[in-house]
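hey can u check if this looks right to u? its 492 residues, i copy pasted from the old doc so theres a chance i mangled smth
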Amino acid sequence: MRQGQEPQSAQQSDRAAVTAGTAPAVGRGRRGHGAGTQGAVRLDRRGVLLGLLTTGAAVATGAGVALWRSGRAANTGSTDVAATGETTEVTVGVKGMRFIPDTIDVPAGNRLLITLDNDSDQVHDLVLQLADGTSVSTGRVAAGTTGSLDAGVVTGPLEGWCSIAGHRAQGMVFHVTASGQAATAAGQTATAQADAAPDYAAVLPAEVTPFDAALAPADTSTTVHEHTFTVTEQVMYVGGGVTQTRMTYNGQAPGPILRGRVGDTFRITLVNDGSMSHSLDFHAGVVSPDAVMRSINPGESLVYEFTAERSGIWLYHCSTSPMSVHLASGMHGAVIIDPPGLEQVDREYVMVQSEIYLGPEGGETDADKVAAKTPDLLAFNGIAFQYRDRPLTAKPGERVRIWVMDAGPSLPTSFHAVGLQFDQVFVEGAWTLGGPNAVGAAWSGGGQALGLQPAQGGFVECVPPEPGTYTLVSHAFADMEKGTMAYLKVTA
C-alpha cells in the first residue's frame, strides 16, 4: 500500500533554445497556421506604434511580431536591464491540458519568440501577460496547426495561460523566468515558488503502487485490535503528474483502513517521527479528547484506546492546528465497524475521498488554497485517477459492496456508479435501502447516488449484470474531472 516517488518532472528537462541575431519568420503550421495576435498595442520610447492589434483568423507571418529597436525593455517599465540584441526562440507543445514545457528561463535582456505547436485534438491558445499589464497572444490555434507570439525583450518573470474557458483551471498555465530574477510583485522567484500544475491526462507511473482498495472481512479471532501508527512526512505521487510532500500515518495516504465489530476495542500507539507536532482523532470512539487527542512533538508517542459502540465507517484524522491542512496533506483514514449480521459479499472495496491542494512540485500543501476550498485535485484513496489507470475488478453477477468515506476536509461528494443501480444503501449508521428490514422492497426502490458531507460515510451494493467497464465517480462532475473517478472492470 506504499506509494512510489515520481521521477523528476518533465518541465525540468525541457529547456529553451537560445539563438543570436534576428529570428526567422514564425507562425508556419504543419497544416496551416494560427493567428499571431498581439494582445495589446505597444509603443516604443519614441512613441512610434510598432505592434498590430489583430483579430481572429490567420494572418501573414509577420503579424504579431513587434520590431524591438529600443535599447530598453518594451514589455516592462524597468530600465535596469539593457537589450542584449539576442533572441530566445521556444516551441511549446500541448499534451492533454498542459503546455510542454510549462516553464522556461530566458536570459534577461533577450527578445522572446514563442511558437505554439498545437498537436492536441482541440483548439488552444497561449496568452502571455507582460509586466506592464498588457498581454500578447498566439490567437486561437486549431488542432494540428501552429501560432506564435513575440513577448519582446524580457526583463522579469512572466505568466501565461490558455484563455479558452476552463482550460486555465484545468492546468494550462505557463511560466517565464528571466535568469532567476525575482518577481517584483511577490518578491520571490517565480520558478521556485510556482505551484505545480496538474495534468489530468497523466497516467499513473509504473513504479507507483495504487492504494489497495480491496477489503478483507473483519478479524473475528479477537476483540482487541492493536496497531501502531508512525507519522512521517515524505514526497509522494498524488496524481496529475505531480508529487507533493505528504504527512502520513505508516507512510501511506490515506492511513491504514481498520475494521472490526460493535464492542471491539482498538488500541493505537501513535509515534511521531515527523518534523512537527501531530495527533489523532478517531470518530469511531467516544472518549475525552484531552489526553488521547493531544498533539505530540517529534520523537514522542502516546496510546489511544477506544471501544467501538456503534456501526458505520468512521473518519480518523490529525487534529493538530491547522487541522484542514494536516488532513488535506494526507493525515486521514477510516475505521469500519460492521453492522451486526452484515452479510458477506463477493467483493468489497473502500473509497476514501479527499481534496489535494497543490504547492510547488514536491512541496507542501498550499494552505491558502485549503482556506479558499479550491483544490487542484480530488482523489479516491489519496491518488487522483489511480483506478482509472489500474481498474478495480469484478465478475458478472457478483455482489459488490463499496464503502465510501468523505474525508474532506471541506467538500461534499455524491458517489455514483455509471451503468449500475444500488439495491443496498447504508449511510451514517442506518439502512436507507435494503438491509434486514428490506427497506424499499415494497415499492421496488433503488438508489443512484450516495450523498455525503465531509466526515460522513456509508456503503452501497450493486450487482453488475454483464461484462463492461463501469465508472465510479463523484457526480459533482467538476470534482470528478479533477480525479474522483475509477473504473470497475467486469469480465467473465
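Residues 24 and 89 are 10 Å apart (CA to CA).
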